Structure formats: C-alpha cells, structure tokens
Amino acid sequence: MFELSQEHEDFRKVVRDFAEKEVAPHIAEWDRASHFPTDLVPKMGELGLFGLVVPEEYGGSAGEGQGDFTSLCVAIEELGRVDQSIGITLSAGVGLGINPILTYGNEEQKQRFLPDLVAGRALAGFGLTEPEAGSDAAATRTRAAADGHEWVVNGSKAFITNSGTDITSVVTVTARTGTNGDGTAAISAIMIPSGTPGFTVEPAYHKLGWHVSDTHGLTFEDCRVPLENLLGDEGQGFKQFLKTLDDGRIAISALAVGCAQACLELATDYAKTRIAFGRPIGVNQGISFQLADLAVMVEASRTLTYKAAWLKDELHEGRRSVKEVKHAAAIAKLYSTEAAVSATRIATQVFGGNGFMEEFPVARFYRDAKILEIGEGTSEVQRMLIARGLGLPQS
C-alpha cells in the first residue's frame, strides 16, 4: 500500500520553509499588482523543484529513467498552501512545459531546452486550448504547413500559462499538419521559441483569480520554425498532449490539496480566536461541524491525490497499467478540486465579513479555487473519464 516516505516528509518541510520565507511575506502585494515574480523562479530552480522528474544528465535529480512524481506533488501542495499562483507556476512549468520535451523530445531538443528549464532560468508553455477548442481539444484550428525546411504556423491559443514571462523560452503548440486516413485531422506538436517572428503574445488576461500566475492568449501569423522543431512524431501531437494532461490532473489535485489545507488551518485558527457573544466562535457546533467536514475533505483529497501519484511512480516501474493511473488521476482531480472550492466557501463563511476583505488570505483562496474545477479537464470531463473507466457503454 502507498504511503509517503520519511524522505517525502523531510522534503515537505524544506518546501514549506521556502514558501513561508520566499512567498508568504510578498504574496498579498504581488496579488494586488498582478505581478509575476520572475526572480522567484530561479530560486525554485536552485531548490531543485523543476528537476524532480528530470534525469541528472539534463540538470535534474531523478537519476536514470523517470523521477519521483510524488515529490513533485508534495512541492506543488506546499507552494499552493501559501499561494495557488505560485503552485500552478511550478505545476505548469514541469507538467506542461518540461514533461512534453522530456517525454517526446529528441536528444538535441532535450539538450537545447531542459537545462535552463530545470535550473529555473527559463519557463516553457503548453499551447493546447483555443478560443473555439476547450474541452473539445480535437477541434484544433491552428495549422502548420511544411514549406521547404520550415513549418508555417497560423492560428491562436487561449489561456496559456507561463507563456509571456520575461524568461519564457518556448511554447509547444498543437497544430493540424494534415489529414488521417479516416478523414480526421492529423495533429502534431511543434515547439515555437519565444521571439520567433509571427509569434505574438497577447496582453495578459484580467482574471478572477491566479493574479500572480502568467496567462496569455497567443497568436501565430505565418510564424516560421524549422521542421526539426516537431516534437515527437508527426500526427501524434494530440495523443501526446492527452497523456500530458493525465499527469497534469494529479498535479492539479495536489494544488487543490494545498488550497484546502490552507483553508482548514486559517479557519481553525480564526475559530479559536474570534470572540462572539463572549466566547470563541469555534465553540458553536455550526462552526465546529463545518470545520470537521473540512478536515475530512482535506484528508480524503490528500489520500486520493497521493495514491494517484504513487500509481504514477509505480507505472514507471512497470507495476501498474496506464488505465489504472488514468482512472485514479480523474478521481483525484474531480474530488480534490471540488473539495477545494467547498473548502474556500466554508473558510470564508467562518471568517464572516472579514472573509470578504482582501486583507485576509481566505478571500484570495476563494477567488483562486474555481479554476481548479476547469483547468486540466473540467469536472464534467473527469466524470466522463471515470464512467468510461467503469466500462460503461459509450455513445
């Protein structure tokens, strides 16, 4: 049976200490200014956070083969416990930026991009979603046509994380590159370095939450990159990105656990010290029972998340199946993200009027939580995947 090792718990303490010292004192100001803290990324790299699943030959700490995905989830949870934007910066930086290159890139591509990404000197984005192709990712309209020794890319992407920072080095995008024998679009993955002519990063979104996270729309107009920038095999980009999302769902679950844990801690402390009618409000069952329910949500979310992460690590050892990991990832993502949204609602209610004030962290967590049910596959998509995993007939 899975459990976190002592090494994992020791690592948790290291990341928690980093988050408390490097993030917590500044996050309220960063959030108000919608400021992406570029200088924080190399510090995260120095701590080894971007290299947890990357082999040593590219600057990571994983040794031969795949690394410890569970450690990555621990790091995401602990950063997310202090701020969700910083947690998603790591989650997307590894899961959506590094992993596609690590998994599908050739040796030249890995040597070109991974050392800087692992060190935190650079970030990479993952361009899948489009204005007219969200959950229906197969409806990609962006096209890439071969012209001599180059791909000519035209189209647009939406809601792309880590795509417009001062240190973003590359965005991997899906694009139609032809037609399959059955008439469906052949979708490929192509790496487009920042600064490539014809590649425009649109102004940052004005978002409900995740104010400290970098998120942009992207436009490609006759954007030319070498044919060698194809990531993996031509026509396999859609399958590659679906596999990438499977892993990302576990990481988002870890981010949700951090959110719920923070809400539990904040609301419990407040219930012990807030005096109403001459006694702490935590004395009242109306408060204490809500916090008890919240504790159950946190425990269940953490268990589901780390079971999925453990299965992912076991998969690399050949002891688990892809189907088993996909099913566990969907369950963890569905439960943990919906629990996180409930946790922020409960915590805000416990804080009463103060919970509506931006000076209290629960207000930020309340704003940040909703996207957890949307990104990396909506709750509806997760239910569809879980039902499919049960072997139910499909339409």
UniProtKB/TrEMBL annotation:
Cofactor(s) this protein requires: FAD
The enzyme's E.C. designation: 1.3.8.1
Top-level taxonomic group: Bacteria
Keyword Oxidoreductase set for record: yes
Pfam families: Acyl-CoA_dh_1, Acyl-CoA_dh_M, Acyl-CoA_dh_N
Record-annotated Acyl-CoA oxidase/dehydrogenase middle domain positions: 126-223
Keyword match Flavoprotein: yes
All copies of domain Acyl-CoA dehydrogenase/oxidase C-terminal, residue ranges: 235-390
GO molecular function per UniProt: flavin adenine dinucleotide binding; short-chain fatty acyl-CoA dehydrogenase activity
UniProt keyword annotations, A-Z: FAD, Flavoprotein, Oxidoreductase
Domain Acyl-CoA dehydrogenase/oxidase N-terminal span(s) in chain numbering: 5-120
Cross-referenced PROSITE patterns: ACYL_COA_DH_1, ACYL_COA_DH_2
Enzyme class: oxidoreductase
InterPro entries attached to this UniProt entry: Acyl-CoA_DH_CS, Acyl-CoA_Oxase/DH_mid-dom, Acyl-CoA_Oxase/DH_mid-dom_sf, AcylCo_DH-like_C, AcylCo_DH/oxidase_C, AcylCoA_DH/ox_N, AcylCoA_DH/ox_N_sf, AcylCoA_DH/oxidase_NM_dom_sf
Protein family according to the UniProt entry: Belongs to the acyl-CoA dehydrogenase family.
Descriptive protein name: Butyryl-CoA dehydrogenase
Protein source organism: Intrasporangium calvum (strain ATCC 23552 / DSM 43043 / JCM 3097 / NBRC 12989 / NCIMB 10167 / NRRL B-3866 / 7 KIP)
Lineage: Bacteria, Bacillati, Actinomycetota, Actinomycetes, Micrococcales
